[in-house]
Amino acid sequence: MKLDSTDREILKHLQEDAHLTTKELSGRLNLSPTPVYERVRRLEKEGVIKGYVALVNREKIEKDLMVFCSIRLKEHAQEAGAKFVQEIVQLDEVQECYNISGDYDFMLKIIVHDMREYQSFLMNKLASLENIGSTHSIFVMSEIKAETKLKV
Prior knowledge:
By secondary structure, the protein is of the alpha+beta class.
């Protein structure tokens, strides 16, 4: 799908505030509501807009510890890797999971209440996955920049 400048402006505004009504969005774009509504629906249908979420302040819900955990698998066969992925996506503490290159195979972003909860997660959940060879944890001391907006 080819995006024109109006599509890009729509995406820019919706990334800043997904609560914008079609009327508000059309006012910002100097277009009538109907074409704006149709463009937004097309962007949704084509998968450019994947969904809408509320961004929750993790500290307000007592999820104060963010950990990046690198995982090295014991076995790299396709079936073993697929099983690991199936298991890891089931863990609520894992917010993000990336297959990476380099010394490790996967990078996890884990959000928990505190160090005690992370230790319990590591020992009782992560360590129970059979294909994990080793892990390396990096603890976030402060969050400097965390954006959800993409430049379009």
